[in-house]
Design goal:
The complex is a heterodimer. Chain A has 10 helices and 2 strands. Chain A is mostly helical. In chain A, strands 1-2 form a two-stranded antiparallel sheet. In chain A, strand 1 and strand 2 form a beta hairpin. In chain A, helix 4 runs antiparallel to helix 6, helix 6 crosses helix 8 and helix 8 packs antiparallel against helix 9. The longest helix of chain A has 30 residues. Chain A starts with 5 loop residues before the first helix and ends with a helix. Chain B is α+β, with helices and mostly antiparallel strands. In chain B, the strands form 2 sheets. In chain B, strands 2-1-5-3-4 form a 5-stranded mixed β-sheet. Chain B has a two-stranded antiparallel ribbon with strand order 6-7. In chain B, helix 5 crosses helix 9. Classes of the chains: A mainly alpha, B alpha+beta. At the A-B interface, helix 2, helix 4 and helix 8 of A face strand 4, helix 7, helix 8 and helix 9 of B. Bound molecules: protoporphyrin IX containing FE (HEM), iron/sulfur cluster and FE2/S2 (inorganic) cluster (FES).
């Protein structure tokens, strides 16, 4: 009879997977944002935090989390793309005239563009990891800093230098607005998907979703904009001259 | 009677057979009365076309009072037309104004092939029902009322789901052509009652499988289905279908 493998086989299963992974990703970005807001506190605080994360469990926690995150993003993207693609097979011939039904419909620009905002997020996440974790394209080498007697990567300087470059700030602003749009439909939608939506709480979940989407977009936007406006690039960065 | 007649321009999908290409054909109807139903207006159009020797427009209808689920047109881009909680046969011409163009198209989904003009084959819904939309034991005559207690909210919610008339507007309105609202209504009408509960797990897996096999799309939670449904079936039923599915596969 039916088993767990059905989750990856049927439309309902794929949607459940998409909702669950989407909600877990929401949890991830909350912790990611909370930690990264230390960038606004200063060099010491942020580099300390980076060192702390990397020293957890004798350095084992971060790689495990990374594998988990790759799987989470992968499962979410694959299930999401499968939902979005199902429409092409199911409605090959469209309407000559189409309109929104209005009323109780939840269809919106956000709900219709999940695949667009999602795909942009996927490309962004890959570039974002390459940029800050792997140090691709950076303009100079950053010597390690000493924290509690241990050498640790100077992530703060890397971030500050990138965010003193206007086009990079612009890119982050655009992508974070897309994240906000993804979550505006996505947060509520995940509850509906997991069967946790009901008439009594629907408005509450919807409002919480709006607030959550706005908080995440604004929170992540704040970092590059604040750095661009108020934090000087580090010495030795060629951008510092310009 | 005189005085309030008006005329409308019609753009109607004409397609002579399943494999033939179709297109929007343009007609003008004069002497339309506000109290006419849209389908009566189409009847008059067909009389006119027949008199002119033109093949009349094929469309489905039966009860013409919103209870059978036979009618179904996409009117100006909205399944069952401009009113919420009403079927195509309940649309009156007073909803349109003089000189307005009304675009009329069939319900569109790969699983609902066009048979002719505005008539589509909705047998895919019957096959979903055959996969599990029943209780397979004979429940006999009504039992003594207190022997199987049914909580009132469950009874009400099951009745609400059972109001689905199988018209397929939910599929027509869904940007993904998903049959989730229909299938979830049928699952919900059994899952909340003791007689249906016994087979709930097998039913949900079979009906979802049948829905997938018919080639309907997945659900993006847009909620257009609920907005066009003549019986205002709620998308909370889709949430229930997913909960039931999860219970069945875990
Ligand atoms: C920051 C990372 C992300 C978060 C927090 C996130 C969150 C969510 C949430 C909560 C949902 C709602 C799930 C549901 O409807 O049940 C969702 C849906 C979706 N996500 Fe993401 N997502 C992220 C990244 C991505 C990526 C990288 C893709 C890649 C393509 C993607 C594609 C989609 C799609 C297509 C849907 C909608 C599927 C549908 O049509 O119903 N998302 N996302
Ligand atoms: S759920 Fe509503 S729109 Fe869908 S088939 Fe049933 S009555 Fe029609
Ligand atoms: S003809 Fe019966 S519901 Fe419209």
């Amino acid at each position: 009879m039916a088993g767990l493998t059905d989750i990856t086989r049927s439309t309902v299963g794929k949607k459940l997977l998409n909702g669950l992974t989407g909600l877990l990703l929401c949890g991830f970005i909350v912790s990611h944002l909370t930690g990264n807001l230390l960038l606004l506190v200063g060099r010491e605080a942020f580099n300390q935090y980076a060192y702390f994360l990397h020293s957890l469990g004798h350095g084992a926690v971060v790689p495990i989390m990374e594998v988990g995150l790759v799987m989470l993003f992968g499962a979410h993207a694959i299930s999401g793309i499968s939902v979005a693609r199902s429409r092409r097979r199911a409605r090959p011939d469209g309407y000559k005239k189409s309109a929104n039904a209005g009323g109780t419909s939840r269809k919106s620009l956000a709900s219709r563009s999940m695949i667009v905002t999602g795909t942009v997020l996927l490309i962004f996440v890959i570039l974002h990891v390459a940029q800050f974790k792997l140090g691709w394209g950076q303009l100079r080498d950053y010597p390690d800093v000493m924290i509690d007697g241990h050498a640790s990567v100077d992530l703060y300087s890397r971030v500050v230098d990138w965010f003193n470059w206007a086009p990079m700030v612009g890119l982050y602003v655009v992508v974070m607005l897309m994240l906000g749009n993804h979550l505006r439909h996505g947060f509520w939608s995940a509850f509906q998907t997991l069967g946790a939506n009901n008439p009594r709480y629907e408005n509450l979940i919807n409002t919480a979703g709006m607030l959550f989407a706005a908080a995440m977009a604004v929170g992540f936007l704040l970092i590059p904009i604040y750095i661009f406006l108020f934090v000087e690039p580090t010495a030795g960065s060629s951008l510092a001259a310009g | 009677m005189a005085g309030n007649e008006f005329s409308v321009k019609l753009l109607i999908w004409r397609q002579s057979g399943p494999a033939q290409p179709g297109e929007l054909a343009s007609y003008t109807m004069d002497n339309v009365l506000p109290e006419m139903s849209l389908l009566e207006m189409l009847d008059l159009l067909n009389e006119k076309l027949t008199a002119e020797g033109i093949d009349p427009v094929a469309f489905d209808s039966d009860c013409r009072e919103g209870i059978c689920g036979t009618c179904g047109l996409v009117i100006n881009g909205i399944a069952h037309g401009p009113h919420s909680g009403a079927a195509t046969c309940e649309v009156r011409m007073r909803s349109f104004s003089d000189g307005e163009t009304i675009v009329i198209e069939p319900f569109r989904a790969a699983s609902f092939p066009v048979i002719k003009d505005l008539v589509v084959d909705r047998a895919a819904f019957d096959r979903i029902m055959q996969a599990g939309g029943y209780v397979s034991i004979n429940t006999g005559s009504a039992p003594e009322a207190n022997s199987i207690p049914v909580p009132r909210p469950h009874a009400e919610s099951a009745m609400d789901a059972a109001a689905c008339i199988g018209c397929a507007a939910c599929v027509a309105a869904c940007p993904n052509a998903s049959a989730s609202l229909f299938t979830s209504a049928k699952i919900s009408q059994y899952a909340q009652l003791p007689q249906g509960r016994a087979e709930a797990k097998r039913r949900v897996v079979r009906m979802v499988d049948a829905m997938d096999e018919e080639g309907f799309g997945n659900c993006s939670n847009h909620g257009e289905c609920e907005a066009v449904c003549p019986k205002e079936i709620s998308i909370f039923n889709i949430g229930r279908m997913r909960r039931e599915y999860l219970k069945a596969v875990l």
